[in-house]
Amino acid sequence: MGRAFEFRKGRKMKRWSAMAKAFTRIGKDIVMAVKEGGPNPEANSRLRAVIQNSKAANMPKENVERAIKKATDKDTANYKEVLFEGYAPHGIAILVETATDNNNRTVANVRSYFNKCNGTMGTQGSVEFMFDHTCNFRIPANGIDPEELELELIDFGAEEVFEDEDGILIYAPFNSFGTIQKELESRGLEILSSGFERIPQITKALTEAEVADVEKLIEKLEEDDDVMNVYHTMEEA
Question: Which terms are listed as keywords in the entry (predicted)?
Answer without folding.
Answer: Cytoplasm, DNA-binding, Transcription, Transcription regulation
